[in-house]
Specification:
362 residues, three-stranded antiparallel sheet, 14 helices, seven-stranded mixed sheet, alpha/beta
């Protein structure tokens, strides 16, 4: 019995090593620098979906900020469409991002107002979003007129001002949110098909499978839409393809790279980003392209925005929790509504152990 186990282990190791060799060889011959690769994608497509990692992961927005700050993006694209903003706050976004030389207090107040009202949740305390909006504002201070980068909210229309009961909140949530977001993107594009946009959607909303905003957009605009997976672990906290992908990138020094999935060893691997794969999909059926930006060990999350819950906002904050659509109010949870909950910066680091990935306090 022990001999059989040893043989199985040896065969598994041999297969994994062979698979990794094929992946590494493909990367050596077919990968490109990510910014140049995305520039090329936009020369062939008008809508490029980028699969956001966990909302709170910070380093992915270093990558996005690098991309939107390039000359080619500013001159040839100029728009970012995001799931992290409802259409209801578009005026707030435009007012802030097209403004010039705001006093620091006015800038902070505008950012806080957006973070309090950008989603169907009580507020948005992810540090990454606050920093991203602030970065666009600071970038636009260096740009003139039509060159300023625009941020477009694609999520459903939702305003806490109109929510007076839990039933109001339930009614306001669209049953087909992905269809609503997808149709919004299609309408935005059809209104002026000379425009291009980087479309940031979280995890499954960026898939070309299941029922997603990206798939809907691809269905309506098949010749101008593509999507990109940004490397991370799976949604269940496992290394992709049992670590073969991460080990392949590490073999090449973890340098940032991008490549096409179709026809690659990566594209032929079973799709394992989502919690299950009942359809037996492979990666190239879900994503067209892949960007490796940084290794797991460099990733981290951050929550908290200073000044998000002030004394004059506490009553409204508690009211929103009372009527929130996604969870029944619970007494023990209500007791935790303190100023520090969404203002204290809390950092967690990604850590690997075998083929698992865990979040540890920084």
């Amino acid at each position: 019995m022990n001999q059989i186990k040893l043989i199985i282990i040896a065969l598994t190791i041999s297969f994994t090593a062979s698979s990794q060799t094929a992946h590494v060889n493909y990367l050596k011959e077919n990968s490109n620098e990510p910014s140049a690769y995305l520039n090329h994608l936009f020369s062939q497509n008008d809508l490029v979906f980028l699969c956001e990692r966990m909302h709170t992961e910070m380093t992915q927005y270093d990558f996005v900020q690098e991309i939107i700050s390039t000359d080619w993006f500013i001159k040839n694209v100029g728009f970012v469409i995001t799931e992290m903003c409802t259409r209801t706050i578009q005026d707030k976004l435009d007012s802030l991002l097209l403004s010039e030389d705001l006093p620091s207090e006015d800038l902070q107040n505008a950012l806080i107002s957006i973070c309090r009202n950008n989603s169907v949740h009580t507020l948005w305390s992810n540090s990454s979003f606050y920093n991203f909006v602030k970065h666009i504002y600071e970038l636009n201070q260096k740009l003139e007129g039509d060159d300023k980068v625009r941020l477009i909210g694609a999520d459903i229309s939702y305003s806490w001002d109109s929510i007076k009961s839990k039933n109001d909140a339930k009614i306001a949530i669209q049953p087909n949110r992905d269809t609503e977001m997808g149709q919004f993107i299609v309408d935005w594009y059809n209104n002026d098909s000379t425009r291009k946009a980087l479309v940031i959607m979280n995890t499954r909303h960026a898939y070309f499978s299941k029922y997603s905003a990206a798939k809907y957009t691809k269905w309506k605009l098949p010749h101008t839409t593509t999507n990109v997976y940004l490397n991370e672990c799976s949604m269940s906290g496992k290394l992709i393809n049992k670590g073969v992908w991460d080990n392949s990138f590490e073999t090449l020094g973890n340098k940032p790279m991008a490549f096409k999935l179709k026809g690659s060893p990566f594209g032929k691997d079973p799709f394992d980003h989502f919690y299950n794969n009942k359809q037996k999909l492979i990666w190239e059926e879900v994503f067209d392209h892949l960007v490796f930006y940084n290794p797991i060990e460099e990733m981290y999350t951050s929550t908290g925005v200073s000044g998000l819950v002030t004394s004059d906002f506490e009553a409204e904050y508690n009211r929103r929790h009372k009527f929130r659509w996604y969870r029944k109010p619970k007494t023990f949870f209500q007791r935790r509504l303190r100023n520090s909950k969404h203002q204290e910066i809390k950092i967690k680091l990604y850590r690997k152990s075998g083929n698992r990935v865990y979040l540890r306090k920084g």
